[in-house]
Design goal:
The chain is an alpha+beta fold and 333 residues long. It contains four helices and 16 strands. The protein folds into three domains: 58-67 and 183-267, Efflux pump adaptor protein, beta barrel domain (Elongation Factor Tu (Ef-tu), domain 3, Beta Barrel), CATH 2.40.30; 70-178, OB fold (Dihydrolipoamide Acetyltransferase, E2P) (Beta Barrel); 270-333, no CATH class. It has helices at 2-33, 105-124, 127-145, 306-312; strands spanning 52-75, 80-85, 92-93, 98-102, 148-150, 155-160, 167-168, 173-190, 202-207, 215-222, 227-229, 232-241, 253-268, 275-285, 290-294, 325-331. The relative contact order is 0.18.
Length: 333
Amino acid sequence: MKKRWLIIGVIIIVIIIALFIGGRFLNRASEEELTVQNTNIKITPQMVTSVERGDLKKTVSTSGYLQPADEKALTFSLNGEIEEVLVSEGKRVTEGEALVRLEKSQQEYNYLKAKNTYELIKTSGSESEIKEQELNFQIAKKNLEDTTLKAPFSGLITEVSVKPGDYINSGREVAYIIDDSSYKIEVAVNEIDSLEIEVGQEAIIILDAFPGREFSGRVTEIHNYTQNVNGVVTLPVTVQLDKTDRQFKPGFSALVEIIIGKAEGELLVPISALLVFTPVKVGFSDGVYTAIEEGLAEGEEIVINVFEFAKAGSKNNTTQGVPGMGGFMRPKK
């Protein structure tokens, strides 16, 4: 019996010693796998860079065309003959300024007739008759006013398409006006990138017509509908320029970089210098490839030369560990 207990005791001691030694080898291997100092690896200047302090910004790039803050095709609500054109292409006008006039003799007659009838019926007509004539009078008054086309806002006349003597129908465009006091750009942002776009974000605008210059702006509107062109889904976004230039023209092509994140005065290193250690469960190996049972997904990127540094850092050029366990270094995303 004593001999039996002695054998059991010896076995227990051997197991404890084995676990202790194995643990040391495992810890040593883990340390050596990430060690690159004091090795025989030749470090070239191309493999070394300095940590620097600087600024970072992350942007979403897109493109579009300059559009004025407002624009409108100008039309008459009446049929008639053009009597006078008071503006020409390229003229700057102010809100309410007269631009084009129709011949108005008929409208003046209708106005005076409606006014006299209304004044007369007010003293002797019924309530319903008074309301009817008042409405006729207001319509005649508005038609007379509408024989003069006025600027809806201050801006630039970019087109005049009529001349005195022309007869026009209501709704026909006679002039075009833009508000060029400010400009905006309607851009299409990829549906994935759109999740990072917010109203108020800064933007950098580069115009082909102004090489070497950058203009600032910001996101003012994110539309609530998407567009699908040839299977590519985008979200319309409006970027307003902070300042305008008299040389700006509607339709100028623009490259827009929306700043979705930035850091200033930070310590910077190349992203290629960052690795993330990921534990994995390994399976069968043919000596060249090893099956991964847990820890990685198809298509993920891994660093394949990191263990060469680890081996070079080992005294006997080998590493030891526990079968079934392992790890990979992933590039830092």
